[in-house]
Amino acid sequence: MNSIIQTPPVKGSRINALNLEKSDYRGVPSTLCQGCGHDSIGQRIINVAWELGLDQTQMVKMSGIGCSSKSIAYFMGLSHGFNGVHGRMPPVATGALAANSSLTVIGISGDGDTASIGTGHFKHAVRRNVPMVYIVENNGVYGLTKGQFSATADLGQRLKYAGINNLPPLDIAMEALVAGATFVARTFAGDPRQVESLLKAALTHRGIAVIDIISPCVTFNNHDGSTKSYNWGSLKRRR
Q1: Nearest partner of 71 among 105, 102, 106, judged by Cα
Q2: Residue 146 phi, psi (nearest 5)
Q3: How far, in Å, CA of 154 to CA of 214, rounded?
Q4: DSSP assignment letter at 75
Q5: What whole-number distance in Å separates Cα of residue 188 and Cα of residue 236?
Q6: Are 192 and 200 in contact (CB under 8 A)?
Q7: pLDDT of 157-211, one tens digit each?
């Protein structure tokens, strides 16, 4: 990854080490549902990128297909970005780094994009220890295609339109560990302080840094019986 400037702005200052305001790290306005956990994650990326003084011109945002993959448009509007085919974000990111190893790459994926059609590409990116921050915005549901179960949905979970899930979930963090990832973390979109701490650590890590972020889908999967809901995440955070 590109070297990271770690000179935090003076407390109370509106500009960072690159003389940029936090608003300079925003993208286009979000079109996601109001309250979506993905928007919270995007704001955390904005905060960290501004605080660390990241040079957006030396950064690449990668994504595949899904609600999560839309979110790269909503932060760091001055950086490069590529929205690839469903599940193929990891090989595209690998190609970008092969062409220019000095770039800092942030890959945004979802539980469908990574744990279903993109599982093989995810595992090989981990196996190769591709130097990138790999974020999975995990909500246990296909929010973009009207609420079907994803591969991370809980066994026995009930959804309004999809019925009851009869398959066990795939654990993204465990898959990363088994494949030999050198940095693996799981957090919750509703815990901004922890998410930002993990992002800072991931950006300075040499190798692939996988962060599985529980990111509630407020439209299809934010009920009390779901382990991908705001209530569930808040209860676990208090512990």
Answers
A1: 106
A2: 80, 30
A3: 13
A4: B
A5: 9
A6: no
A7: 888 778 899 999 999 999 999 999 999 999 999 999 999 999 999 999 999 999 9
